[in-house]
Specification:
The complex is a heterodimer of chains A (367) and B (555). Chain A has twelve helices and 14 strands. With 367 residues, chain A is of the alpha/beta class. In chain A, α2 links the parallel β2 and β3. The longest helix of chain A has 27 residues. By secondary structure, chain B is an all-alpha fold. Chain B is 76% helix and 1% strand. The longest helix of chain B has 38 residues. Chains A and B meet through α1, β3, α3, β9 and α8 of A and α1, α3, α12, α15 and α17 of B.
Chain lengths: 367, 555
């Protein structure tokens, strides 16, 4: 095959072009391989901003980093677009991925709004100065005090319980009554835990450190580890594992089970609500905040107000979560779970204990 | 002599130019990886690293050894079988055995787990649970799955080496009293050693870099550990340190491969009608020969594809097809083609630079560049991402100050950054294909062309590229297949909101929504099949390809 002069010419252009691009990359690495400059530190952050969304001129576009992209509630965002004419650019990813991305992008981020799961992700973003505090009458009206940051950096859109789940076929009712039950010798080799890099677990442990103290928490974790748990990748996989007979007891977010039961009412796994005579079941949040540096704050707040309003909340929780807005009852198929005694996560103190939690989990051998 | 002198000095200058270009490109590709060891200097080795590193390293080494032995045995024996024996179905097996290349490990895991559940069905049901079989979740599962999808690297390179061998050497061995198999074993296999070693090295590097399969199987190898410390503890220093160890393993693989290859250079000078004639098998031998590839293909290709198709049809019938599936398919394809184009350029530049003027520096640079292949996509993504963010910030600032224009981030979270990561990651694939093809072009051809007055650029475009053509196409196709399957780097660097098929599959698989994951997974396999089929078609005409090549001067 002969190469035409034209093809040869383009090759001779393309190769050097590629080289130049790569040389630039090398130069950049050589000059500065370190992390990008962090966004302004916490103390430099302005106080919570009171925002009014009445009669505002909406921004044309909002960029939303959406950590709930696989929760199937994108229609909520489409409804907002239809009602306001704002174009929402939804960019999906897991909570940790979005945090890492925001952190790298710093002040140059295109994001206006961060929607993410778990207090750990919200707190990490807040702590890195990636969010800005906002509040509005409607937000205060729709989200109760315990479910938003005191400085308005994040507002919950839903709550979820992280609780023991048990096989209905192999575990008698009443055998699991607390988080301590996962250490029960009868379940030796028969427990499942999700990996310790999962933020749900990290938040649970950090919250325990805050409420029970680090020593008691570490004792509890060691007793869990003594049962030689199988380490599982996801809550969904854990439920499948229990249903399939791979283990008897696990620890999962309640909505995974809600979804499984909605699909198959005979699914052989049940929640075992913990500490119902005591503190209650650990309740975490998923939430939303305005990204620091956004130039469309009022529109962003309008989106947050929409997400926490009853019509949007009903859609969001249809995946078996509980609404942040107390006016919205749980979806019908889990209405029986509405009266569970809950232990809301400590929104202000759990975050700072996260690093300690991560280290403790690795120390006790929770991989 | 006087006339020749200026020509020679010109040659040296031009040759140096290409050699320098080759080194620069190689360092460009290796750049982000060279920066990794700095993580040990900059940050202390903390408790996180110390806790996670030893077991993860052990698991990775075990995985690499297992996959190396497995792919050599499986891929090597299949290559021997279809190259030196004729049996019913050989024509089909010949190309079909490449098909597992299109199936990512994580898709295979997802099919197995989706079908049988998480609870090691064989373990509990076979022999009434009396005999403890190695579990899917243990090392055996990870090695088995990755061997099943990675053996084609050994098979492909082994077979093309066997095809390039001359009949005479085999006949010489026969005349010395060897049986057919004996001749293959003592002559053909050793001659193909570089190709087989190259294939094993690629397979092992890919296994070490695999994240999807080991993650889904809960086998916490190094890649998994890196991902965990990065996204669980946000301990970037520890992640970079673990990544450095992994790069070290990759470099070790490359050195090992080179050592195995020795200093031997086998220039095949294949003339017309010189190729090996496979021996015809009959009776039960033919049956066995037929059954072996058939079984492999049934387990690795037919069953998973059928299962994926069934789930996909279910999804379509139930009307639960995700909205943006078409868009995701298109993005995936565009990304793959762009990355392949750039990777072919870098591979050719590095290989040619090293050929024109072989040097120690050039060789080291070329090997460094190839190490990207063994580094998990997630780490490459961040290694590329950090400098790109830095560059973007300065560009934004410069545009604002100098021109007064507000530009967005050019590289970060755009296709450019992602393609850059792909090139760093898959350069080795392209390089290996281009270089091994270039090694088959006899150096005397260069000299002949040079003697006739062609400059180096002309030797490359007019002499090498026509001969390299199959190598270049192979390189591009290998990169395309890889990009379509690639997961972690895509997850980190893709323009957010623009899903690829792998992302869709992954997100659904994570949540064990198997029916949702099936359709994009099936598309990944199908898209991946296209280049594999083209590759196979290219091979399907070995005689014509040989005819097209100019007869080489016999030394």
């Amino acid at each position: 095959m002969a190469i035409s002069p034209r093809a040869r010419l383009s090759l001779l252009i393309a190769v050097p072009l590629a080289v130049v691009a790569l040389v630039v990359a090398v130069a950049v690495v050589a000059l500065d391989g370190g992390p990008a400059p962090e966004a302004p530190a916490e103390q430099a952050r302005p106080a919570v901003a009171e925002v009014s969304t009445d009669g505002i001129a909406y921004a044309d576009t909002l960029v939303v980093y959406n950590g709930r992209s696989h929760y199937g509630d994108e229609k909520v965002f489409r409804d907002f677009e239809a009602a306001t004419g704002v174009r929402l650019e939804l960019r999906g990813g897991t909570g940790p991925e979005l945090f890492e991305r925001l952190r790298r992008e710093g002040t140059d981020t295109p994001a206006d709004v961060l929607v993410t799961t778990d207090l750990a992700n919200l707190w990490r973003a807040e702590n890195a100065g990636l969010l800005q505090g906002v509040t509005s009458p409607r937000l205060r009206d729709q989200v109760p005090a315990g479910l938003h940051d005191v400085d308005g950096n994040w507002w919950a859109v839903s709550t979820r319980l992280r609780v023991p789940v048990v096989s209905t076929e192999r575990v008698p009712p009443g055998a699991v009554t607390s988080y301590e039950s996962l250490a029960d010798a009868r379940f030796r080799g028969r427990t499942c835990l999700r990996t310790s890099n999962n933020e749900y677990n990290q938040s649970l442990v950090a919250d325990m450190i805050v409420k029970r103290g680090p020593d008691a928490t570490e004792r509890l974790l060691r007793s869990w580890m003594a049962n030689e748990p199988q380490i599982i990748n996801s809550d969904g996989e854990m439920l499948a594992m229990i249903a399939g007979g791979g283990c008897d007891v696990g620890l999962a977010n309640h909505y995974y089970l809600g979804r499984a039961l909605l699909e198959n009412p005979g699914f052989p796994v049940a929640p075992a609500w913990p500490d119902q005579q005591g503190a209650g079941a650990h309740a975490n949040v998923s939430g939303v905040g305005v990204v620091a540096g956004s130039d469309a704050v009022p529109t962003a707040v309008a989106l947050m107000e929409w997400l926490t309003s009853p019509p949007a909340q009903e859609q969001i929780i249809s995946g078996s979560e509980f609404a942040a807005n107390p006016a919205v009852p749980p979806p019908a198929h889990i209405s029986g779970w509405a009266n569970v005694r809950i232990d809301p996560i400590d929104g202000q103190h759990t975050g700072p204990a996260l690093q300690q939690a991560v280290e403790m989990m690795l120390r006790v051998g929770w991989t | 002599v006087d006339v020749a002198r200026p020509a020679r000095s010109t040659a040296r200058r031009q040759g140096s130019g290409w050699a320098v270009l080759g080194v620069v490109v190689a360092l460009g590709v290796a750049g982000p990886l060279v920066a990794l060891p700095a993580s040990f200097v900059i940050a202390d080795v903390d408790a996180v690293t110390l806790t996670l590193l030893p077991p993860a390293l052990g698991r990775s080494v075990l995985l690499g050894l297992g996959v190396g032995v497995g792919t050599l045995a499986l891929g090597g024996s299949l290559a021997v079988l279809v190259s030196f024996y004729d049996f019913p179905g050989r024509r089909v097996a010949e190309w079909a055995l490449v098909l597992p290349l299109a199936i990512p490990g994580y898709v295979l895991v997802f099919v197995i787990v989706g079908q049988f559940g998480y609870t090691d069905p064989l373990q509990s049901t076979l022999f009434g649970g009396v005999v403890a079989l190695p579990g899917l979740r243990g090392p055996a599962g990870a090695i088995g799955v990755l061997t099943a999808v990675l053996y084609p690297y050994v098979y492909v390179l082994g077979r093309s080496a066997f095809l390039g061998q001359s009949r005479q050497s085999l006949e010489a061995a026969r005349s010395l009293g060897h049986s057919h198999l004996g001749a293959v074993w003592t002559v053909a296999v050793p001659l193909a050693r570089p190709a087989l070693a190259g294939g094993v090295a690629l397979a092992v590097m890919e296994a070490l870099a695999d994240f999807g399969a080991v993650n889904l199987l809960g086998y916490q190898a190094l890649t998994d550990a890196i991902y965990r410390v990065w996204y669980g503890a946000f301990d970037t220093a520890a992640a970079l340190q673990l990544a450095t160890v992994l790069v070290g393993l990759a470099l070790l693989m490359i050195v090992l491969e080179r050592t195995l290859r020795g200093r031997a250079r086998y220039h095949q000078t294949l003339a017309h009608g010189d190729a090996v004639l496979p021996r015809r098998l009959t009776g039960w031998r033919a049956g066995l020969a037929c059954a072996f590839p058939a079984l492999v293909l049934l387990l690795v290709v037919a069953f998973p594809v059928a299962q994926l198709t069934a789930w996909s049809v279910e999804t379509i019938v139930a009307g639960r097809v995700a909205d943006r599936l078409g868009e995701a398919a298109l993005s995936t394809l565009l990304l793959a083609v762009s990355a392949a184009a750039v990777a072919v350029c870098t591979a050719t530049a590095v290989a040619y630079g090293q050929r024109v003027r072989p040097s120690r520096v050039g060789a080291v640079a070329a090997r460094l560049a190839a190490a990207g292949y063994a580094v998990p996509g997630a780490v490459i993504a961040v290694a590329v991402y950090v400098p790109l963010v830095w560059l973007d910030r300065r560009l934004v600032a410069a545009a604002g100050n100098l021109v007064g224009v507000e530009i967005g981030l050019l590289f970060t979270g755009t296709v450019l950054g992602l393609v850059g990561a792909y090139v760093v990651r898959f350069h080795a694939q392209a390089y290996s294909a281009v270089e091994s093809r270039m090694a088959r072009v006899h150096p005397s051809l260069d000299d002949a062309a040079r003697a006739l007055g062609a400059d180096r650029a002309r030797v490359l475009t007019d002499v090498h590229l026509p001969l390299l053509w199959p190598g270049v196409v192979t390189a591009a196709l290998l990169v395309i297949v890889e990009v379509v399957k690639e997961l972690p780097a895509t997850a980190l660097l893709r323009p957010l909101g623009r899903d690829t098929l792998a992302i869709m599959t992954w997100e659904a698989t994570k949540d064990t929504r198997f029916d949702t994951a099936a359709l994009p997974a099936l598309l990944i396999v199908l898209v991946g099949l296209v280049p594999v089929v083209v590759l196979v078609r290219l091979w399907g005409r070995p005689s014509r390809a040989t005819d097209a090549a100019p007869p080489l001067p016999q030394a």
